[in-house]
Amino acid sequence: xxxxxxxxxxxxxxxxxxxxxxxxxxxxxxxxxxxxxxxxxxxxxxxxxxxxxxxxxxxxxxxxxxxxxxxxxxxxxxxxxxxxxxxxxxxxxxxxxxxxxxxxxxxxxxxxxxxxxxxxxxxxxxxxxxxxxxxxxxxxxxxxxxxxxxxxxxxxxxxxxxxxxxxxxxxxxxxxxxxxxxxxxxxxxxxxxx
Length: 194
Prior knowledge:
Layout: H1 2-16, E1 30-31, E2 34-35, E3 41-42, E4 47-57, E5 68-70, E6 76-78, E7 83-94, H2 99-115, E8 118-120, E9 133-139, H3 143-153, E10 160-170, E11 176-177, H4 181-193
Parallel strand pairs: 1-4
Antiparallel strand pairs: 2-3, 4-7, 5-6, 6-11, 7-10, 8-9, 9-10
């Protein structure tokens, strides 16, 4: 599902924020990085690379009984708790011959996400059915955090924007019926009278 989210963002950006008509190159503007030298990330020149730099569990919206779920038929079921995740996605604009172009492409990206922060089934029919909604939030990292990210990537800093993509939900499909307290009392009473 993580790959579906990142591919959705890439495809949506290439459709909605294509290369400028003055660009000679006919390739996609938003791409995935390739392999680099010595375990570094290979950021593609004259493009905006999309990198997943962090995955975190979001525990803020947990249900009181994490192991209980109600089926579509209304029956209570016991299931492993869902995992709600946030993805931290870095968009890196690398235009080595024209620094202004890097800044221009980043500005277009930020402008697009400012106007399109939420993606759901209504406004994005090509979003996979198991993904109910994606919410994008621009993250401002400190200089030390930014240095750590670029150090981990083993690359020199490039103009970039970091976004948190919220809520990716992984859910247990193997659930079983839950025994309620009332059913337990009835079973005990039946066992005692028999």
